[in-house]
Write a structure and sequence with these properties.
Strand content of chain A: 35-45%
Oligomer: heterodimer
Strand content of chain B: 15-25%
Number of strands of chain A: 13
CATH topology of chain A: OB fold (Dihydrolipoamide Acetyltransferase, E2P)
CATH superfamily of chain B: Collagenase (Catalytic Domain)
CATH architecture of chain B: 3-Layer(aba) Sandwich
Radius of gyration of chain B: 15 Å
Shape of chain A: elongated
CATH class of chain A: Mainly Beta
Radius of gyration of chain A: 24 Å
Distance between the termini of chain A: 99 Å
Number of domains of chain A: 1
Helix content of chain A: 10-25%
Largest sheet of chain B: 4 strands, mixed
CATH class of chain B: Alpha Beta
Shape of chain B: globular
Structural class of chain A: alpha+beta
Largest sheet of chain A: 9 strands, antiparallel
Helix content of chain B: 10-25%
Distance between the termini of chain B: 20 Å
Number of helices of chain B: 3
Number of strands of chain B: 5
Chain lengths: 191, 151
């Protein structure tokens, strides 16, 4: 009888130690939510037409991501807020008061163990120098906040004088040339 | 496996969207060890509604845990004038084939490194307007599928 109780205790102690060790060692499982869609391909002049603000600057801060449900769907999505230190406004066709910094939102982000990847959303990291075509209307989910026009199409990452389009490498060009092209489009539209 | 909730608000006759979706599903079968079935009731759904961005024709969301797909849902934009004749854009079946590609874990071509124009002849090319009529898998799509599921 005593031998039976002893064996029982051994099983309990082993099981409890095992669970404790697992909880200490095991990493939380990452849940990855991937959102993909088909994009309407827009030429640069159309992207400019849809923009309210076009700006060059540096990403100086990334805020913690926030998740929310998309209205009338089963889709849960996250967004991330970025702070851009503005070097230059190429366009401000809104009531927005130009400042040294500008806050914009971008779809996607990581919240706890959940990672929300939005395939067509541009990618940013602190320290990136960027040229962004922004509006507060493009994305229903982000309506009312500044967000990138045409998702990845409206975001350029600038490195060594070249502005790389996040969607089409073929649209990449020297920064000066891109700025000049955009300014010409703006000029034409305002006539 | 997927189940259809209701696509009547897409403006396509019920019998048409049922058969078009079925054809889109079949496009992915027979090329690898993977088979996509339709089932009367399961958590993976295809439905009509307004996606997160109005400019998107359809949006697929997949939820993955390490090693397996936990959930997959596709919402077709019901503010779009869908076509089903195979010649007019947006072609419902063409978009459905693309969206089911995400169910089998393929990515949009724009997220792949390299020249996006190179991938124009794949169903995972993610820009529109595209030429309607490309409703079946291209060799590159099949290769991507086989790289995940084997032949």
């Amino acid at each position: 009888m005593a031998r039976g109780i002893g064996f029982g205790w051994l099983i309990v102690v082993t099981a409890v130690s095992g669970i404790a060790a697992y909880m200490l060692i095991a990493q939380p499982t990452l849940i990855r939510s991937n959102t993909s869609s088909m994009l309407e391909l827009l030429p640069l002049d159309k992207l400019v037409e849809h923009s309210k603000i076009i700006v060059v600057g540096e990403i100086v801060e990334q805020k913690p991501s926030v998740k929310d449900m998309v209205e009338n769907t089963d889709v849960q999505i996250a967004y991330t807020e970025y702070i851009l230190k503005v070097e230059r406004y190429l366009l401000n066709n809104s009531e927005y008061e130009e400042g040294d910094t500008l806050i914009f939102k971008n779809l996607g982000g990581k919240v706890g163990i959940e990672e929300f990847i939005v395939e067509d959303s541009p990618e940013f990291k602190v320290g990136d120098r960027v040229l962004l075509l922004l509006t507060d209307e493009w994305d229903d989910f982000l309506k009312g906040s500044w967000n990138v026009v045409g998702w990845r199409q409206g975001a350029y990452t600038i490195k060594d004088g070249i502005a790389y389009n996040q969607f089409y490498k073929e649209r990449s060009m020297p920064e000066d040339e891109l700025v000049k092209t955009i300014e010409e489009i703006i000029k034409k539209k305002s006539k | 496996m997927y189940s259809i909730t209701i696509l009547d608000t897409l403006g396509i006759p019920r019998s048409t969207w049922v058969s078009e979706l079925d054809a889109a599903r079949q496009a992915w079968n027979g090329h690898s060890r993977f088979t996509l079935y339709e089932a009367a009731s399961n958590p993976h759904t295809v439905y009509a509604g307004i996606p997160p961005s109005r400019t998107a024709l359809a949006v697929t969301t997949t939820v993955c845990l390490p090693g397996y797909l936990q959930d997959a849902d596709t919402v077709f934009n019901n503010t779009v004038a869908w076509a089903t004749d195979g010649r007019t854009w947006p072609d419902f079946r063409r978009v459905a084939v693309h969206e089911f590609g995400h169910w089998v874990r393929l990515k949009d071509t724009s997220t792949l490194s390299g020249n996006n124009y190179c991938y124009q002849y794949t169903v995972m090319y993610d820009c529109f307007p595209v030429v309607a009529g490309y409703r079946t898998l291209f060799e590159e799509d099949k290769q991507w599928l086989r790289s995940i599921y084997g032949r």
